């Protein structure tokens, strides 16, 4: 490393000193809009902005669908997000075409394709409702009673919000584990149309090997448009004008909807995650990927149908491996322990003599969760439609509740090989997680293999016949109780197990909620308001700088370029997943290879931030977040920015792609006006 390179890394490493509480506890920089750290931003960067800047930052930012972020980037409702955020919706409307694989460009407004069921949500109002949600809860209440009162209060708050603003969608947002409650109100755009999407292979260039990796060479973007009354929505008041993108060291702001972090959890709670939750989820993901890959390899039609689902599971597989790897690292857990000790020491110095007792109580709850993990997740229907229908019938017989009968009728029974394979896998994993004498295993397997048990259940049950189900419902409890259908016999054993486990889960959650609120109160008491809550898939913003980092004995550059994409394609002989579509290979000589492609920065992001815009100090679009590096996965539990980075598409790369590959002149005129 040259002297200049070493100095560059040192400078960037020192650019982002945090507030003491943030730094000490590793809580990160996912700031809420109702509590922006204005003094911190001015002290750290000399940055000050007026009210219009802040309003545009919020109102041009969107929650996209059920798991991504996006932004308005033109006055006519044009939306920018990731390709991987839109591809499921695209797959539902492409018909015999393959727009996910081959790309799509609408040459005129009338060619833009509606994406049914897709909505974007714009946060238009925020209000602190902590007092209303916690009204009537006293210190001497037990956890269950407090939770019941909190739920009743929450329903009242939401009902009042709906009555006051019927055109908005209210959401209660729990922050700091219940220490703060906010009422967020959203404007919903429900007519969303596809404008442009590149080829899957360039948006996903490098595939699973390059996922959560940097340097990176993916052009992961897509454009949609919000319509109102059949016309493009008027978003002229608040949108991000297109910018030329940042250079190394530049200040950028990320805004979006991070899905969830676990930084406020205690070390004992993380140990539960490490030893119970993550192993179970990783095993589930691994098994389902194997099943789907095998099916996809057997039939091109199945491959097309399963493609986006497999990609999603592959992303989850690498994500959970990385996060679990952090929890398995003794050094990482030691960092968490040190942060916890610092918190407790400050509490003691502040006059809270028995602060450690709170952590002990939380540890006791975590132990209960670990004991419940296997029965809660494996004493279940395993997704079997026959058992889902049987459970509803048994509940109907026990309660007479007509809604249970309706639920039984609503279950769709179909010949679905994937669903059947998932059920066999569930039973197989249950034999590893539950004791051999477990009542569930005895009822489901009875000494048979999971495959044989599933096959015999499918062959022996008559609950797939809707007429028989109707007869049972008309016959009421007497007919259902008298039936010897194998699915009903299993359901009679399963229902009390499920009810017991759900009751235990509710009690644990109530206790954990109460303790979490106590921990939050202590957090505010010791650190004040200069700390951020965990992510909740609600709108946040984060600050950071564009900066490379040291890795593998060398330096990762702040930017990559199209040179790197075509080099990687050549070095791997155009083999998947480093192959390029023919349209891109033909455009190679037209593309300026020096154009910045992807870049990394120190903004704080996690799942749900996919599709998040980055903006510069002027409020211009500066990038599009689509990933984090592998080192950033540990930020789920404890934030750091030594080598942890967010990975973004450069706006110049999007323009180069639209101009040189897709000839999307209409779109270029709209974003570059």
Tally of individual helices = 25
CATH class identity of the largest domain:
Mainly Beta
- Helicity range: 40-55%
Distance between the first and last residues' Cα: 43 Å
Strand content: 15-25%
Low-confidence stretches: 1-19
Average pLDDT taken over every residue:
94
User: What composes the largest sheet?
Assistant: 11 strands, antiparallel
Structure classification: alpha+beta
How many domain modules? 3
The CATH topology of the largest domain corresponds to Thrombin, subunit H
Structural Rg: 27 Å
Number of strands: 21
What global shape is seen? globular
Any guess at the CATH architecture of the largest domain? Answer: Beta Barrel
